[in-house]
Design brief:
Distance between the termini of chain A: 49 Å
Order of helices and strands of chain A: EEHEEHEHE
Radius of gyration of chain B: 60 Å
Largest interface: A-B, 25 and 36 residues
Strand order of the largest sheet of chain B: 2-1-5-4-3
Shape of chain B: rod-shaped
Distance between the termini of chain B: 58 Å
Order of helices and strands of chain B: HHHEEHHEEEEEEEHEEEHHHEEEEEEHHE
Number of strands of chain A: 6
Helix content of chain B: 25-40%
Strand content of chain B: 25-35%
Structural class of chain B: alpha+beta
Strand content of chain A: 25-35%
Number of helices of chain A: 3
Number of strands of chain B: 19
Oligomer: heterodimer
Helix content of chain A: 25-40%
Largest sheet of chain B: 5 strands, antiparallel
């Protein structure tokens, strides 16, 4: 082996727009087991400011697996109310097939 | 873990270190040689230059001699008086240079001595005068007669210019005793030793004077310059280093510097290659540790899955588990068949969220809990409700999607309840369709929605496929599209349920997805 190549890791990032009462977190990329922890950390810093409402902009989210869903559910449990906006058809179907369309409000 | 790579003595070189040393020393050698050559060339050039300058300076003394003799000749020609010649010479000639001057008269073939000033010419004393003067012809240059042996030896000059005069002025200068020249330290020639010859040939009879024993040995330069009617040949050798000190030191600098760099380079290369080998060994150890750990995990998971599936009259049942692509943690998928009696059994397919040992542990606990609830005879919806009490995402960090169905073989019926799981596929009469099994949230997610139960009547020879999302989930594709691919693969003709499952799995995992896969096939044989 000539050199150590880093494993191809899916990545996601969170871009935050917060104005005190409402925080909008824009998820970008693929949210799976390899990227969940980093995103969770960024969300935690947002939560530390105790926004009244937490909104996730999923327009740039390409993929989400069970780890990503678990993370969203845990955040929803902590905050009480979250909104998922502009989810792509792929993400929408994943949430629907998992029976979570009611729990994770899709708008 | 291999024991600490035995530390090699730091000075021991491996082949690459030896190669570096060899290359380095060769390059150093070449550079040093080049420096030596350059130094020698520069020294030689300087020597040649100094020799030429010295020779020119020495021969430059001749015009002065010639003008003195010419003046004396003019006086003699004008006065025709040997005595006035003698007095003129006594007054004007530089005695330190010329020790003897004489006036001769040429008449026809004879030449007679008219007057002498200074000491007697050696030429006369030796008796060579007649022979010599017979050969002297008018020339504009001063004619150097040759070296006269004696103690001290002398050099003779004749001034006999073309013209009407019948007089010849002859003079002799003294050479150093035994022709040994002493060069004063302050002299401009002090850097050189040299030997001076009359004429081109470097023979001892031609030697005028020399500061070192002749012939001159070692490095030397030979220069000839005009000297009257002949030439003066100078052989010069350096007494001290002519080139500046730095130039001489250059080969040493190149040699030591190059060798030092070579050794440092070799040691560095040795060090780096040892580090590299250590890193490679560590990498190997890590890789083998990882596969060891993974195989332990796989063994664990394998032992948590059912071994032989129970058999039923009138049914063909098969199941497959695919662990996911190499290099990823183990997953939390499972399947189970729980017999109730000869005609009925419960089947379960589930998927714990995330991956790793924890997910596998959650899977094990749910699986055994679900077996317990099933064996108590509960309907699928109740089983799911009971299961939901055993898992809490907020506490356990995982949820699980579960598809639970109860089959009644004789009635060709299946009762299905679904908590967040993908709907099963029904294959019958060569076509595959998706069964309706509306999902409630997964086990572990708090919800107030009770599970729905669907009772589905199945045709003869129906095949039911229950699976986990690893089989169909692909990036860039919706689940609908993906399930369509599954239906397509399921419609294929096959000799047995097991063979069909194998071909479905191999088809749909062709691009090696990372998620694990559980696939359960339940077929009515009539």
């Amino acid at each position: 082996m000539d050199e150590l190549k880093p494993e191809q890791a899916a990545s996601a990032s969170a871009e935050v727009v917060a104005d005190g009462r409402e925080a909008v977190i824009r998820l970008v990329g693929e949210l799976d087991i390899t990227s969940v922890d980093a995103v969770r950390a960024e969300i935690n810093t947002v939560l530390a400011a105790s926004p009244e409402r937490l909104i996730f902009d999923l327009s740039a989210l390409e993929f989400m697996d069970s780890s990503g869903i678990a993370m969203l559910l845990i955040v929803a449990g902590a905050v009480g109310r979250i909104e998922l906006r502009h989810a792509s058809p792929i993400v929408c179907q994943v949430i629907e097939h998992t029976g979570l369309a009611g729990t994770l409000r899709l708008t | 873990m291999p024991d600490e790579a035995s530390p090699e003595a730091w000075w021991k070189l491996r082949p690459i270190g030896i190669a570096v040393v060899v290359v380095g020393l060769v390059i150093t050698g070449v550079l040093s040689w080049v420096a030596v050559e350059a130094n020698n060339r520069s020294s030689s050039a300087l020597l040649a230059l100094q020799a030429r300058l010295t020779a020119s300076a020495l021969s430059g003394a001749l015009p002065a001699v010639q003008s003195q003799l010419a003046d004396a000749l003019t006086v003699a020609t004008a006065t025709n008086s040997p005595s006035i010649f003698t007095r003129f010479v006594a007054d004007n000639v530089d005695r330190s240079k010329l020790v003897s001057e004489s006036l001769w008269e040429r008449t026809g073939h004879n030449t007679t001595l008219l007057a002498t000033a200074g000491s007697e010419p050696e030429l006369v004393r030796e008796g060579d005068a007649a022979a010599f003067f017979a050969t002297v012809q008018p020339k504009s240059e001063l004619q150097v007669t040759g070296i006269l042996a004696g103690s001290p030896p002398r050099l003779g000059y004749a001034e006999y210019p073309p013209g009407a005069s019948r007089y010849i002025v002859y003079a002799e200068s003294r050479l150093p005793a035994s022709k040994h020249l002493v060069i004063p330290k302050a002299s401009p020639y002090a850097q050189l030793n040299f030997a001076l010859y009359l004429g081109h040939k470097l023979t001892s009879s031609n030697l005028i004077e020399s500061s070192v024993p002749t012939p001159v040995k070692g490095e030397h330069a030979v220069v000839s310059v005009p000297f009257g009617n002949t030439v003066l040949t100078l052989v010069a050798s350096p007494r001290t280093a002519l080139a500046p000190g730095a130039s001489e030191a250059l080969p040493w600098i190149a040699g030591f510097g190059g060798s030092a760099l070579t050794i440092i380079g070799a040691l560095l290369v040795g060090y780096l290659s040892r580090r590299r080998r250590l890193a490679d060994e560590l990498n190997l150890a890590l890789t083998s540790l990882y596969s060891e750990q993974r195989s332990i995990a796989e063994t664990l998971q394998h032992s948590l899955l059912p071994g032989d599936l129970p058999t039923f009259e009138g049914m063909e049942i098969a199941a497959r588990y695919w662990p996911g692509a190499q290099g990823v943690d183990i997953g939390g998928d499972w399947y189970d068949i729980i017999p109730l009696d000869e005609q009925r059994f419960v089947f379960i397919v589930g998927d714990v969220s995330g991956r790793g040992i924890r997910a596998a542990a959650v899977m094990a606990s749910i699986r055994f809990a679900s077996r317990g609830f099933a064996l108590e005879g509960h309907a699928p919806a109740v089983i799911l409700k009971q299961l939901a009490k055993t898992l809490d995402l907020a506490v356990d960090g995982h949820f699980a999607t579960v598809l639970c169905g109860r089959v009644d073989i004789g009635r060709h019926e299946v009762t299905v309840a679904n908590a967040g799981h993908l709907p099963p596929v029904l294959v019958s009469d060569g076509s595959a369709s998706v069964l309706a099994a509306p999902p409630i949230p997964p086990i572990g997610v708090a919800t107030s929605t009770p599970a729905e139960e669907s009772i589905i009547q199945l045709p003869s020879n129906a095949l039911l496929l229950a699976y986990t999302d690893g089989l169909v989930e692909r990036r860039g594709e919706t689940l609908e599209e993906a399930i369509g691919r599954l239906r397509h693969a399921a419609m294929r003709d096959s000799t047995s349920v097991d063979a069909l499952l194998a071909s479905i799995i191999s088809d749909l995992t062709m691009n090696a997805p990372t998620d694990d896969v559980a696939l359960l096939g339940i077929k009515w044989t009539n």
